[in-house]
């Protein structure tokens, strides 16, 4: 059955700037907002945009990501004729095993895409926080009779040099692409969201791999090649909330913004839910000594200390006289008595022993890795 559009989510990034948080898991699998993982946003956007065929391209430390996604049932992608498919690198006839870039990852999965016979391919990054209706972007792509449409978002001009920048004419046609320019000519930054006409992209990738093998990355290689050859390339401007959580500070900041009841993501709205694979846990419990304010608390938490302006993921335990402020605490964390935590991210299943101190500051967030033990564990613990 021919598909109008399928999505390919690139989720193989290591995310080295997240340090210990991506030592053993891929960046898109990093927990976010108490009950989600980063990739949940791209997957939920696909489901809400009525895109039922989704390929998830993995590479670095994929075990947790594969387990989380499964067959896509949590996102309603397991229906007949739909599904989420995990696509991992494999050894090809020419001996290549690893994806060399974003475009090369798509080339390596041509057989999967061809099996769905799509007219269009939506290429997404699996490591951004946002809500977006891709069907509106597709309608724009069709209206412009485009070969390629790139999702862009206006950024402050002083920050534009950190992004791939699209320079457009009055109609939105891309006339020039600059990769992290020192003196940007516009503030339209690429979001890493692309819609391609599949037959044309396929031809570019196959012909290139048979000859030059230069089209490894969409930003660095494919977009410039399309522009050089006079293809119809357009920018689709997005004006909603979008966050690249590629650093410890940006991940912490995005989580703290999530605490705002008026957050532009509107996480509680019924008609555009963010779905996730969430384990069952018992109800949360706050003891008579526990104090909670301005905090998201997931199921399974036990709180005997004080918590303010923080996010507690599932099954977090906080001992008496402990203080947690301005922090993201991931699932399964055990925090002992008399502990002080402020401006921190605590990784899954970490143990913070009695009397320990984990304190950072807004510009230098303290980070504890998964399963890490801080302080001295006694027999009483």
TrEMBL record:
Domain Nucleotidyl transferase: 7-258
Job description of the protein: Involved in the biosynthesis of ADP-glucose, a building block required for the elongation reactions to produce glycogen. Catalyzes the reaction between ATP and alpha-D-glucose 1-phosphate (G1P) to produce pyrophosphate and ADP-Glc.
Catalytic activity, reaction form: alpha-D-glucose 1-phosphate + ATP + H(+) = ADP-alpha-D-glucose + diphosphate
UniProt: alpha-D-glucose 1-phosphate binding residues: 164, 179-180, 190
Site (Could play a key role in the communication between the regulatory and the substrate sites): 59, 98
Enzyme Commission number(s) of this protein: 2.7.7.27
HAMAP family: GlgC
Pathway as given in its UniProt record: Glycan biosynthesis; glycogen biosynthesis
Enzyme class: transferase
Gene Ontology biological process terms in this record: glycogen biosynthetic process
Gene name tied to this protein: glgC
Family: Belongs to the bacterial/plant glucose-1-phosphate adenylyltransferase family.
Organism: Bavariicoccus seileri
Glucose-1-phosphate adenylyltransferase/Bifunctional protein GlmU-like C-terminal hexapeptide domain mapped to chain residues: 288-361
One Pfam family cited in the UniProt record for this chain: NTP_transferase
InterPro entries membership: ADP-Glc_PPase, ADP_Glu_pyroP_CS, GlgC_bac, GlmU/GlgC-like_hexapep, NTP_transferase_dom, Nucleotide-diphossugar_trans, Trimer_LpxA-like_sf
Keywords annotated in UniProt: ATP-binding, Carbohydrate metabolism, Glycogen biosynthesis, Glycogen metabolism, Nucleotide-binding, Nucleotidyltransferase, Transferase
Subunit and partners: Homotetramer.
An annotated Gene Ontology molecular function: glucose-1-phosphate adenylyltransferase activity
Name listed for the protein in its UniProt record: Glucose-1-phosphate adenylyltransferase
